[in-house]
Amino acid sequence: MSVPITMNADPSYDPRTGEQRGSVPHTSPERVAGILRLASAAAVIVADTSPTTRLGWLTAIADALAAHEPELVRIAGEETGLGADRLRGELAKCAASTRFYGAVAAEGSYLQAGTEGIGGESTLSRWNIPVGPVAVFGASNFPFGFGVIGHDAASALAAGCPVIVKAHPAHPRLSVRLAGLVTDALAEAGAPEGSYALVVGFDAGLQLIDAPEVTAVAFTGSQGGGMALVDRAAARGVPVFAEMGTVNPVFVTTDAAATPQEIAAGFAQSFTLGAGQFCTKPGLLFAPAGAGIFDAVLAELAQVEAAPLLTAGIAAGYRAGVAQLAAAAGASAPAEAVADAPVVAAETAADVVAGPAADGAAGAAADVAPDAAAHPRDGYAVAPRAIRVRLDDLHPGSRLLEECFGPVALVCEYEEAGDALDALVRLQPSLVASVFTGGPGDPESAEVVRRLLGRVGRVALNAWPTGVATSWSMQHGGPWPATSRSDATSVGAGALGRFVRPVAVQNAEPAHLPAALQPDNPWRIPRRINGKLTVPSE
Hints:
Blueprint: E1 9-13, E2 20-25, H1 29-48, H2 51-67, H3 69-80, H4 84-107, E3 114-119, E4 122-130, E5 134-137, H5 151-158, E6 163-166, H6 172-189, E7 196-199, H7 202-210, E8 216-220, H8 223-234, E9 240-243, E10 248-252, H9 260-272, E11 282-288, H10 293-301, E12 307-308, H11 312-328, H12 335-338, E13 345-346, H13 349-353, E14 365-367, E15 381-382, E16 385-389, E17 408-414, H14 417-424, E18 430-436, H15 445-453, E19 456-461, E20 500-506, E21 527-529, E22 532-534
Parallel strand pairs: 3-21, 5-6, 5-8, 6-7, 8-9, 10-11, 10-18, 11-17, 16-17, 18-19
Antiparallel strand pairs: 1-2, 3-4, 4-20, 12-15, 13-14, 21-22
Helix pairs in contact: 1-7, 2-4, 2-6, 3-4, 3-6, 4-5, 9-10
């Protein structure tokens, strides 16, 4: 007999078995209010702390994560079913990215500090300041990379902002343990109280969005979830940096189709990676007709075992979504896709902040009653699917243009490359697209890339989209509805830019300026003085 979800705790379920493994109490309104007061008080101190000091804080966090790897991987496995190897790799990358964001802060160019004369005795100085406390709503599909400490939280801390994170209901026990390690590491490294905190529960999440102390919000998850937060925060004019994801296309040129087995194997591996629960999953592949790529993909999928999805809501949404995609394509829905699919409800703002519908990029359906049907004893395992579609099927309003979270992808075979390129503009803009070419000089590749750049955040040439590097040049974003802010990235050095804003002072004396613009440059950062970029010597 399953244990019902209560109104005052997030239950923890094992996706491999459907069994409950404890629960985590929700944070009371009084406790949330206290956390907000501490964050507000800490904001000035954190903002004034040197970037190199913040690098030390983030290094301490990374060291704590690495030191507790076995425990964290065990808890994450019990709550996500993602497998020890995947989780160990993700945790190592989380620690590395945490250090990276500290290093970006210490380098200092994100401050864009500069001063110049503007005529006569007048001067103008400009730099970026931290916005203040940031609320982070993490994803279910990356419990370390986009959880309560990961790209959003680490980049906000690096930028000089206190962070308040909401525990994801898909992994509440892991969220609490991670938050405890982060809080202890920051305290030991000398960060002020209020620099970082965790809240749990639906009401706690709403309280963060509505709190005047919160100056920015970062979210990773579904379109419905992200837009619900955007709409709610709009009442206060607070920016929400929502990375939501859509259908990421792959274009195979005529010349590239000369290696159909290689393309099919890579495609199958990429869209089933992590049971298809990546926002960068390739969801629609365009390939020349007659190349045999669709049949080759089916052969590859025959070798892929069923895998558990993260939550009952995601599993239900996947089964329903596959049936809808098959119907939209005029295909026969696989039996597994329609059998015993629980009734699902449309995602709401309440689901986004607290319930199963907040499961990463889960799509439009997800809130499932917590009974034996929703949490079967054999877990949330599903089989991967590939569906053949026609160019004419890709019309505005078609379900085929919407994301289905999980290991399913579409293959569209084209006769003329120009027709397939025209179909690209009917897709929703996305985070990333892949283009496979026949090599240098491919006559189709330049036009494909040109068309895609206006509709995606990143184009991967001869590479699958699921790899995202934490680096200086990474862009992990895209036009709406892939994200709520096309000018931002949630991964890479540019991620700090979400949590600062520019200010300027005219005719400032040294006492009026921050350390970043003091004559002796105590923070040792790049600055633009009278239009000339100056870089501190080693």
